Amino acid sequence: MKAVGESSIRRLSLYLRFLDAEDARGRRTISSEALAALAGTTSAQVRKDLSQFGSFGIRGTGYDLPALRGRLREILGLERERRVVIVGAGKIGAALAQYPGFGDRGFRVVGVYDADPAKIGSRWGSVRVQSPTKLAADVKRLDAQIAVLAVPAGVAQTMLELLARAGVRAVLNFAPIPLAAPRGVIVQSVNMAQELEALSYALAHAPPTPVRRRRGRD
Amino acid sequence: MKAVGESSIRRLSLYLRFLDAEDARGRRTISSEALAALAGTTSAQVRKDLSQFGSFGIRGTGYDLPALRGRLREILGLERERRVVIVGAGKIGAALAQYPGFGDRGFRVVGVYDADPAKIGSRWGSVRVQSPTKLAADVKRLDAQIAVLAVPAGVAQTMLELLARAGVRAVLNFAPIPLAAPRGVIVQSVNMAQELEALSYALAHAPPTPVRRRRGRD
DNA sequence: CTCTGTGAACATCTTCACAGCT
DNA sequence: AGCTGTGAAGATGTTCACAGAG
Questions:
Q1: What is the CATH number of the domain that holds B91?
Q2: pTM of the model
Q3: Buried b (16+ CB within 10 A) or exposed e, A141-173
Q4: Same domain assignment for residues A18 and A50
Q5: CB of residue B198 closer than 7 A to nucleic acid strand D?
Q6: Is there a single domain that holds both residue A128 and residue A65?
Q7: What range defines the domain where residue B29 resides?
Q8: Is B105 within 8 Å of B77 (Cβ atoms)?
Q9: What pLDDT digit, counting tens, does each position of B91-112 carry?
Q10: pLDDT one-digit tens code per residue, A29-84
Q11: Which bases of chain D are under 7 A from a protein CB atom?
């Protein structure tokens, strides 16, 4: 299998969401055109994305919806439950912990950590906030593969390294700085400051009359 | 001025963060190499990004730090305060409202709206949660240009249209679906489900031994 | 001699357009 | 006839490598 683009993967995740919805309402088949309309892209894009993983469409008809749905879940690795630890028990951590897209897709929060003694011990759903000193042991014991890093920028790199040593394999970072990924750890960052400033730039440079913008769809 | 790439803008925002920090510690000049190291990119990339807006570097020396900083603030439209309304008073809205990168960069929250009667009237910093029926009048009165859309997927498009009619010019969307941007409105989306599933994909496909990943930096 | 600014090469992503399966 | 799968073209983004300013 040749290298699959990052952007294709992001779209697969989106396609899956719509396949779930269409499947729920009983649709059995869907064309690249129809799926593209839902996901806000083009039919060619949908076909290219899917064809990277084989050809499971039916010419003249479209894609078998339940089959495609199953295949995407498999491709995205959503068939198995992923255990997640949240590091940083602030508002962002809280928002993610209760985000429906989290639990719905098999991501289970098994631990929450924060260095603030005032927060340690408080309940977050079914888990209690712990000290980060517990991380190393917990990650191993609970077999957590994913960590959400929602700590201040100044301690993010240190925490990332701690997580890496503990055995975490993938990290979703919300600290607004670039992190150097330790060997063997996949780091994905979400930087809200950047998003906001991209909007500010667009406002400053497109002002009097309209213009469009993207990321996800237009 | 020729079209500037989306990705350049995102990096400018990052560069500015580090320029702020270096300026604070008294540095007066910085080379593309040094800035690249901080921002996790290459010197060529830094120079390409900056050269799109003119040539304000000094050959043999680097860039005048305060000057560059001022120029970036100007380019990103951060010299003027931006008034922001938050639609959806859930956890995500709350996380953003208290996010330091928000206030620090001149984004001021002037209103919070939620359809849930139980939330209406509660205090969020200096503002009270209002009904979305107040949006149209408030956006005009407060001259809000940016909205943060943190509502459930099902009502996001409707709210976006309401915001557009109210006169909002830019929207940062957290609902996990693509939105059709009304004419004259810039929509930027952050989809955490996609980020998470991209990690899941990477875990499923890079497992036994290491591999890297990106977005913001590796 | 250092470090910028930039054309040219390269790589990646998107769109087009059509051959060929059903 | 309808719709997929895919090469080829086009667009966008990144890296290289060097001429030339300071």
A1: 3.40.50.720
A2: 0.92
A3: eeebbbbbbbbebebbbebbebbbebebbbbbb
A4: yes
A5: no
A6: no
A7: 6-75
A8: no
A9: 999 999 888 888 889 999 999 9
A10: 999 999 999 999 999 999 999 999 999 999 999 999 999 999 999 999 999 999 99
A11: 1-7, 12-17, 20-22
